[in-house]
Design a protein that fits this description.
39% of the residues lie in helices and 26% in strands.
């Protein structure tokens, strides 16, 4: 990539466009062209406006800062031979997603050929780049996270893990399985994706793709071995109740990590809640915590979860209780209307009615008993308030999933070969990583990564042609103060 070099001769400063080239392991500067000189800290170009014509205009600003972040964490070197092609797809997912067969057209409108030193982009080279990701995906992730952690001094003592699913087009992918999506819909073939992020910053740590019919808890069994290779100093591993199992708590414990996890309310937990509520009311000012605009009342008791000692927090959310209660009554009221007209009612509602269609009041009261209640288990000795806040503040990974599925266009997946499906998800993962780092850098400006990229969209790189001297040179359009502030937030010297 070329840049402008200042050359001081006497009391004058001349400007030349140069390019860094690596020769025999050393970086040397190759002179491309003389630009002009600097007068009163402003550039004076050595041509007149009548000699110039605009030959091309390319999207530059958003790609430039994405590449700056990728370079900071050494992505081009880690990704290997096809790094430029891979990064072109990563940046496309961050900005203006196009499918692989449309990428070459999108590429022509951008300055990627200069930024990534790409002289052309074809569908075949992009597919070869996807295929190259299969062999070293796990090692890539590990090296990338260690670079990110070191560069930005991340607090990795808290890790949040969760699972989501996404769907594929077609029915040829062997590890896609029919199932219910996280949104509760049955649709195309599904695959599972496990994702871990840092608890404080929400920076992705690792991910893995699984068959669509693998239970959430079993995904962590597999990933614990991957996580062990990272050799991160022990901390707190946080995950949802769908992932909780005695095996997982023990696996995490064997690595020296503590667990903070959700627990499903089954018969044993129901009895504990009843006993606690009998001895002391949970709604008390001393039990009150405010988290994410919700008020949660909590009482804790010592607990043994499958032989693992810890503390069980019984949590109660009055707003959630009311929402669940009213939603159930809406469904029952609708079911009564359907039954009166001899129509089929929603699955699961039959238990509330007798054979003649009368409402079972006792069954309804039984269902309402634990509305608004949830349970959390921790092996770490922390205060009740910290326990509740850390668990209910774990939406960093949910936000990462929203970024994956929304901004980076994870779904639907249009590939069907196993290696290309996993490569597509890895591309989205890298896009999510760059956006999360960008979000961290923009924190003081209080703007989102997507807004910043959009605000830099008008930062074009213009190719000018000097008709008199028959040569080309490039200029970036004048920046607004807001664009300058964004660049400074990314890296002050920019």
């Amino acid at each position: 990539m070329s840049y402008i070099r200042k050359i001081k001769k006497g009391n004058k400063i001349y400007l030349a466009e140069v390019e860094g080239k690596r020769i025999d392991g050393k970086v040397v500067q190759k002179h491309i062209r003389y630009i002009g000189k600097e007068v009163n800290k402003k550039t004076s170009v050595s041509i007149t406006s009548t000699d110039l014509e605009v030959e091309d205009v390319k999207i530059h600003g958003p790609l430039f800062i994405l590449h700056e972040i990728a370079t900071e964490i050494n992505l081009p070197e880690i990704l290997g031979e096809y790094s430029s092609e891979i990064l072109s797809m990563v940046y496309a997912h961050c900005l203006d997603y196009k499918s692989v067969n449309n990428m070459p057209e999108w590429y022509k409108r951008t300055d990627l050929n200069t930024i990534l030193d790409l002289e052309g982009l074809t569908e075949d080279t992009l597919l070869s780049a996807l295929d190259s990701l299969e062999s070293n995906g796990d090692e890539c992730q590990k090296e990338i996270f260690h670079n990110v952690r070191k560069k930005y001094r991340l607090n990795s003592r808290g890790i949040v893990y969760d699972v989501t699913n996404t769907y594929l087009y077609g029915k040829k992918c062997l590890f896609g399985k029919i199932g219910k999506s996280k949104e509760g819909k049955r649709q195309n073939l599904l695959i599972q994706i496990g994702l871990a992020t840092t608890q404080k910053e929400g920076i992705p740590v690792f991910h893995k793709t699984f068959d669509g019919n693998i239970h959430d808890s079993k995904t962590l069994n597999d990933l614990v071995h991957t996580f062990a290779k990272y050799k991160i100093p022990p901390g707190l591993f946080i995950y949802d109740r769908g992932i909780t199992s005695v095996k997982n708590i023990n696996y995490i414990g064997e690595l020296g990590w503590d667990t903070l996890c959700g627990v499903s309310i089954k018969d044993r937990e129901k009895n504990i809640i009843r006993k606690v509520l009998k001895d002391e009311p949970i709604i008390d000012i001393n039990n009150r915590c405010s988290i994410n605009n919700n008020t949660i009342y909590t009482q804790c008791v010592n607990h043994n979860f499958g032989g693992v000692k810890g503390k069980l927090a019984i949590c109660f959310n009055r707003k959630k209780q009311l929402d669940i209660h009213e939603s159930r009554l809406d469904e029952i009221t609708n079911a009564q209307r359907l039954l009166s007209s001899k129509n089929k009612i929603k699955d699961g509602l039959e238990k509330y009615f007798t054979a003649s269609g009368r409402l079972r009041i006792q069954e309804l009261k039984k269902a309402e008993e634990f509305d608004g209640y949830s349970c959390i288990f921790s092996t770490k000795k922390i205060s009740n308030k910290d326990m509740v806040q850390l668990y209910f503040d774990k939406d960093v990974v949910e936000k990462a999933f929203r970024t994956l599925k929304g901004i980076t266009n994870l779904r639907p997946i249009r590939h069907w070969l196993y290696n290309r499906v996993t490569a597509h998800i890895f591309i989205c993962y890298l896009s999510c990583l760059l956006l999360s780092i960008l979000k961290m850098k923009l924190k003081k400006l209080e703007i989102s990564p997507t807004q910043a990229l959009e605000d830099l969209h008008s930062m074009y790189r213009v190719c000018l042609y000097d008709k008199k001297k028959k040569r080309k040179f490039y200029r970036t359009v004048i920046l607004s103060k807001h664009q300058e502030n964004i660049l400074k937030a990314i890296k002050r010297k920019l």
